[in-house]
Design a protein that fits this description.
The complex is a heterodimer of chains A (288) and B (332). With 288 residues, chain A is mainly alpha-helical. In chain A, 75% of the residues lie in helices and 3% in strands. Chain A has one domain (2-278): ABC transporter involved in vitamin B12 uptake, BtuC. In chain A, strands 1-2 form a two-stranded antiparallel sheet. Chain B has a single domain (2-324), classed as ABC transporter involved in vitamin B12 uptake, BtuC (Orthogonal Bundle). Chain B has helices at residues 2-7, 10-29, 32-57, 66-83, 87-111, 117-135, 164-186, 189-199, 201-206, 211-237, 242-245, 248-261, 268-289, 297-312, 317-324; strands spanning 146-147, 239-240. In chain B, α4 runs antiparallel to α5, α7 runs antiparallel to α10 (211-237) and α8 (189-199) crosses α10 (211-237). The longest helix of chain B is centred in the C-terminal third of the chain and has 27 residues, at 211-237. Chain B is globular and about 55 Å long. Classes of the chains: A mainly alpha (288), B mainly alpha (332).
Chain lengths: 288, 332
């Protein structure tokens, strides 16, 4: 019994790291620009389909196609910010909300027309392999996906900590007026930030495709999940997104096994409500 | 309210009267399909007014009004199915249940300083939480849905069972009543407190307004009104599924009208509903007639239209329209 529980916790933890990477993108975008990306999950599903196509046509493992997808998503995010999002910076929340809901609607229905409603899995040669560690049986794909998610997160962390652009973006987040006064090109940095947020979406989407099957209906639920994770972890906190992702991954896995798979996200929302009440800034967020 | 009516210029009064007359007489002229579209227009105008009280007046963004809609629908239909309590009595229970839910959401949110985006996400969380809960609630048929017997020929207004004409006039009365209520609240002392809290909560607090209480009143009225819309939905469509009535897309579609029409205005929710619903419907018709009948194509156009309107008219269509019709209130 305990072995099964432990097994489920480990599986949930590994999936949670991928969730965390996806949520990281949301956190970065909101933390810097105060824009809530309501089309987040929808674009993650676009990345899942991209990984699916690259696998079907070129037999690229999503762990490899992750790189070109991430690059393409950087350009996509950069372009979106420059054209569509930028006029809405600093505008009322509900206006941003309508814009991004409109965008999300377009994205998800284009996918629906292009691919139909059926789930599209990727069948890797090692899809059903697993590692035996003592009493634990751990899926190989989940281990790989979690490691890749950690690697991308670490790269982003180093980028924000040590590069000039990363420092400049943090400056914009901390004090926008100050950043503009010292001559930072805020517009450019915002577009880069949006691009980086989309790198998280692209990479996480490609990794998700190895664990879950792409389908348009996943979009809104991924958006909601990313919100839940980010708020639990603390908006704007990079470590918080990963911690929140792991928490949600584990709670979903446990609830799915011990109670009912269809009720698993109920526990995520209950967790969110608890966190918002007890610690509105999130587990690792700064005081509001 | 009379003061507000007096402020409308003369030709504005005529236009209002004309609009009212058109809506009252419409069932005599239009066919059943068009009438069902008009029912939706009135339904969304009503819900838009309800949501606008909380967002447009009190400044609190709720993205989870499907919660109150669903609770209202499920309460009234369940009372009718299980205990034979008719909708005209059940609606008061529905209002009470939804207001209680609103009380919980508002209390948990505002008491603990959850504001802005965080509050909006809290409202989504409650709606989703309840949706999944109802998906597993045996009493109301869980995810399999809840069905009311259908008899299109019956004229049983006491049990809200009848043709589209019955529901048309019920929706018309609801929409008019909600508009009058909004207009009355707007110029009441409470309405001015709402505006003060919306513009600057700290300043409002400083002049002695109980911000929490004022917001809570807006929440209770808004949630209760939305529940009435839910009762209407339940008895009009006569089937309820948690995955539909509590879905986030319900919350989104009911806030589009007031935002597109003009937040915080009296006529905004009506104008928004008049614009959006026929656009959606005519897109469906156009898609079918042009052979472009791909599922999803309609939603794509809908999404694009939303993006265009919010980019070009961020404060809504009504303020712009009012200016061009010279209906905006003279500066006093």
């Amino acid at each position: 019994m305990t072995a099964i529980t432990l097994n489920i916790i480990v599986q949930g933890l590994l999936t949670g790291l991928v969730y965390g990477l996806m949520a990281l993108g949301l956190s970065v975008i909101f933390g810097v620009m105060r824009v809530v990306n309501f089309a987040h999950g929808e674009f993650a599903v676009v990345a899942m389909y991209a990984a699916f196509i690259l696998f079907e046509r070129l037999h690229l493992d999503p762990l490899i196609s992750l790189l070109p997808i991430a690059v393409a998503f950087f350009i996509l995010g950069y372009g979106l910010q420059r054209t569509l999002i930028n006029p809405f910076i600093g505008r009322a929340e509900h206006e941003q909300f309508i814009l991004l809901v409109g965008l999300a609607t377009v994205v998800i229905n284009v996918l629906l027309i292009a691919f139909g409603p059926d789930a599209r899995p990727v069948n890797l040669s090692y899809s059903f392999d697993s590692y035996d560690v003592g009493p634990l049986i751990i899926d190989k794909v989940r281990v790989f996906a979690a490691l890749a998610a950690l690697a991308v997160s670490a790269a982003l962390f180093l980028f924000f900590r040590y590069t000039r652009t990363g420092t400049a973006i943090r400056a914009c987040a901390d004090n926008l007026t100050g950043a503009a006064v010292v001559g930072l090109n805020v517009k450019q940095l915002y577009a880069v930030t949006f691009g980086i947020g989309f790198v998280c979406i692209g990479a996480a989407g490609a990794l998700m495709e190895t664990i879950a099957d792409a389908s348009p209906s996943l979009g809104p639920s991924y958006t909601l999940m990313a919100f839940v994770i980010v708020i639990i972890g603390g908006l704007g906190s990079m470590a918080g997104a990963l911690v929140g992702g792991v928490l949600i991954g584990v709670s979903e896995a446990l609830a799915g096994f011990f109670i009912q798979p269809s009720m698993k996200s109920m526990f995520s929302f209950a967790l969110l409500i608890l966190v918002l009440i007890l610690r509105p800034q999130g587990l690792m967020g700064r005081r509001l | 309210m009379t003061a507000l009516w007096n402020e409308i210029p003369r030709h504005g009064k005529w236009l209002t009267a004309l609009l009212l007359l058109v809506f009252i007489a419409a069932p005599l002229v239009v066919d059943r399909y068009l009438l069902s579209v008009l029912v939706l227009v009135l339904y969304f105008a009503y819900l838009g007014q309800a949501w606008n009280l909380l967002m447009g007046f009190a400044g609190q963004l709720s993205l989870g009004h499907a919660l109150y809609l669903g609770l209202g629908a499920y309460t009234a239909t369940t009372l009718w199915l299980l205990f034979g309590i008719g909708p005209w009595i059940g609606v008061f229970v529905a209002i009470a249940v939804a207001a209680a839910a609103g009380l919980i959401v508002g209390w948990l949110g505002w008491r603990f300083g959850v504001e802005g985006v965080y509050f909006a996400l809290l409202t989504i969380a409650f709606a989703e939480f309840t949706r999944i809960g109802f998906d597993h609630l045996g009493l109301t048929g869980a995810s399999g849905g809840l069905f009311l017997p259908v008899s299109p020929t019956a004229h049983d207004w006491w049990n809200l069972n009848g043709g589209v004409h019955l529901f048309y006039y019920v929706a018309l009365i609801l929409a008019i009543a909600a508009t009058l209520l909004a207009a009355w609240l707007r110029q009441s002392p409470l309405g001015y407190r709402w505006l003060a809290v919306r513009e600057d909560p700290e300043a409002a607090q400083a002049v002695g307004i109980n911000v929490f209480r004022v917001r809570m009143i807006a929440m209770l009225i808004s949630a209760g009104m939305t529940a009435v819309g839910g009762v209407f939905y339940g008895f009009y469509y006569r089937n309820l599924f948690p995955s539909q009535i509590f879905d986030i897309s319900r919350s989104i579609e009911l806030i589009l009208g007031p935002i597109i029409g003009g937040l915080g205005t009296i006529f905004g929710p009506i104008v928004g509903a008049i614009i959006l619903t026929p656009v959606g419907e005519s897109l469906t018709t156009f898609m079918q007639s042009s052979g472009l009948n791909v599922p999803g194509a309609k939603s794509i156009f809908y999404g694009i239209i939303l993006m265009i309107i919010i980019s070009l008219r961020p404060s809504g269509v009504w303020p712009w329209l009012a200016k061009h019709l010279r209906l905006d209130r003279p500066k006093s």
